[in-house]
UniProtKB/TrEMBL annotation:
Membrane-related topology note: Multi-pass membrane protein
Top-level taxon in the UniProt lineage: Bacteria
Keyword Signal: no
Keyword flag Transit peptide: no
Major subcellular location class: membrane
Compartmental location: Membrane
Entry keyword set: Cell membrane, Disulfide bond, Heme biosynthesis, Iron, Membrane, Metal-binding, Oxidoreductase, Transmembrane, Transmembrane helix
Pathway: Porphyrin-containing compound metabolism
InterPro entries referenced in this protein's UniProt entry, alphabetically: COX15/CtaA_fam (IPR003780), COX15/CtaA_HemeA_synthase (IPR050450)
Protein name, as recorded: COX15/CtaA family protein
Length: 337
């Protein structure tokens, strides 16, 4: 039951993350400008009068009935996920004497509680980039921890690899995490189209940039810390940082995929990683060249999630092969046993 519940929660977490990207990218994040209800009601249907009045006051504003439903469906599913994770923690507590990973389950509960607060602040603090980015990172972290818990409970086989390859897997995962953070910062600052050409930006390899205001965390959406409008140079800096991060993370992930493909025991994992990486790079390029169509933008977020889950599986699977030195020879510890 515990394994099935974890897999169900992981599946729902993936849906919530992708739906959250759709809500954000379709400008529905303030479809219900209060929390946890919608204009103090359980659903947009019950708040129809207030939603209609808000839309009449600002026809091009963030409030409309379709946007309100997008936002509330996201909240309903997120609340369901939270309850499922509490159920996982309770079952893990009951099985703690059998070796169930109680610490990991407790960590997931802590992340989800903080994630709920970030979801509230996303609305009540009017889409501050730091809060929205934190909400995205929290969702990815929740999915990654659930995936790790699923691997633990499934008792999946561990594969001994050379220590350098195991460390490469860790380094690639860290680079991917940093790239996800940069991608979230691009999305929450609406900087995806700051560079409309590829591989150059504004026809230059290094156009004018403003990194100081680009990465100032405590500020309003579209504004600098001093209250001025965020310049195109700042948006360009955000976009170029994401491209630079893609080069570093992509190189490490590609190197890891090639290393995994060279070993029979890890060939399947290497092929899976390489396929996910090629797909994500293609989606990123297509978003720039096609001016960020909504389906492709959502798929790019989903592609990042797939890469995270693949890297969780790889890092769970590979472990550095222990060696001992005996009479001048390096021998595999398993062989000695």
């Amino acid at each position: 039951m515990l394994r099935r519940l974890v897999l169900a929660a992981l599946s729902l977490a993936c849906i919530v993350i992708v739906l959250g990207a759709y809500v954000r990218l379709s400008d529905a994040g303030l479809g219900c400008p209060d929390w946890p209800g919608c204009y103090g009601q359980l659903s947009p249907h019950h708040a129809a009068e207030a939603i209609s009045a808000a839309q009449a006051d600002a026809p091009q504003g963030p409030v409309s009935m379709p946007k309100a439903w997008k936002e509330m469906v996201h909240r309903y599913l997120a609340a369901t996920l939270g309850l499922m994770i509490l159920g996982i923690a309770m079952l893990t507590w009951r099985r703690r004497r059998e070796g169930a990973p109680l610490g990991l389950a407790a960590a997931i509960v802590g992340v989800v509680i903080f994630q709920g607060l970030l979801g509230k602040w996303t609305v009540t603090l009017l889409l501050k980039p730091a809060i929205v980015s934190g909400h995205l990172i929290g969702g990815m972290t929740t999915a990654a921890l659930l995936a790790w818990l699923a691997c633990r409970l499934a008792g999946l086989r561990r594969i001994d690899v050379p220590p350098a390859q195991a460390w490469l897997a860790r380094a690639a995962f860290l680079a991917l995490a940093c790239q996800v953070v940069l991608g979230g910062w691009v999305s929450t600052n609406y900087a995806a189209l700051a560079c409309a050409d590829l591989p150059t930006c504004h026809g230059q390899w290094w156009p004018e940039t403003d990194f100081h205001n680009a990465f100032h965390l405590v500020r309003e959406l579209g504004m600098t810390a001093s209250g001025d409008l965020l310049s195109n140079a700042a948006l360009t800096a955000i976009h170029l940082s994401h491209r630079g991060g893609a080069l570093v993370a992509g190189a490490l992930l590609a190197a890891l995929a090639i290393a995994l493909l060279r070993r029979t025991a890890t060939r399947g994992l290497g092929a899976l990683l390489l396929a996910a990486l090629v797909l994500q790079i293609s989606l990123g390029a297509a978003n720039v060249l096609l001016s960020l169509p909504l389906p492709l933008a959502v798929m790019h977020n989903a592609g990042a999630l797939v890469l995270v889950l693949v890297m969780v599986r790889i890092n769970h699977a590979v472990r550095p092969r222990a060696v001992v030195v005996r009479r001048g020879r390096c021998l595999n510890e398993n062989a000695l046993a």
